[in-house]
Amino acid sequence: MLADTLGTKAVRPRSWKRIGSMREAGLIAIILALCVAMSFASPHFLTLGNFRAMLMSFSVEGVVVVGMTILLIVGGIDLSVGSVVCFAMVLSGSLFLAGLDPWSASLTGILASALIGCVMGFFVTVVGLNHFITSLAGMVIVRGLCLIITKGTPLSLFTLPPAFKAVGQGSFHGVPYVIIIFVAVVGIFDFLLRRATALRKVFYTGSNEKAALYSGIRTNHVKFWVTVLCSTLAGVAGVIYMSRFGAATPTFGVGMELNIIAAAVIGGASLNGGSGTILGAILGMALLSVVTSSLVLLNVSVYWQDMIKGCILLAAVSVDHFLNKRKPS
Q1: CATH code at 204?
Q2: Domain span at 166
Q3: What is the dihedral of CA 287, 288, 294, 296, to 10 degrees?
Q4: Is 71's pLDDT higher than 80?
Q5: What are the distances in angstroms from CA 189 to CA 34, 60, 70, 182, 225?
Q6: In the chain, N or C terminus with fewer CB closer than 10 Å?
Q7: 178-193 average pLDDT score
Q8: Does residue 182 register a pLDDT over 90?
Q9: What is the rounded average pLDDT for all residues in the chain?
Q10: Do 232 and 316 contact (CB within 8 A), yes or no?
Q11: Residue of 303, 216, 312 whose CA lies nearest to 259
């Protein structure tokens, strides 16, 4: 019986890989088609400045997408990532203004973000709440903490030292450090998710938690640490944003979770758990970035932009639902 269970699990990752490759190829084709269409619609689209702006806009959010994708694969979801990004910013910024050096302040902000993940992971794995309700409560609580820390007033951090500002504003041979960090995070976790034996437990847990448990996988430990990872990466993104903008606003990141979840789902991460890739999620983020840039260049109202993004998310979830209905049990 155990051998049959493990045998079934050994086959499924290969089928997910084929489906993931199809989704990724489709996304690349859509992105290229949009780029070609926009090259005729606007002379400003195919410019180095526009592509640099698009890369910068989604590179930091892309760090958060990595954590969200892995969490979706395990069968969870985190609605608090926007609030945690803001929390890392305002806590690190407040500690810096209080006299702590920016590196230590940033490390404290990231560790505090990880602690938030630990608390949410505790309520999910020990208390038994689901990720949706837990992260919804976390979103509200953490946003409240941001307002308490700042008293509702944005923090000006223009006195940050140049070496720290370089993380968000500097470049190496013309390539912004933000993009280098983004590529490094994506490359590391994409490789681990595809190749590391330990991370296969994420797929097994998300696909069939009971079967994974019977196979000897400590599923609660997997869910706990993936929840912590998602919050930690959100904290890293918050510190990068602080360095990039030289400020910390208590309302920053409101609605960010929509873009993050949309990108992961468009890229093939299933809301039912068990499937998804980092590369697919990043392509989903790239698609949203291209759509946003296109709408701006075409002078489409910001109100319509949100509606269009919502429609794209609805279409992606519909495709995910259709694929899950056809997936063999």
Answers
A1: 1.10.3470
A2: 2-326
A3: -160
A4: yes
A5: 28, 15, 9, 11, 14
A6: C
A7: 92
A8: yes
A9: 87
A10: no
A11: 312
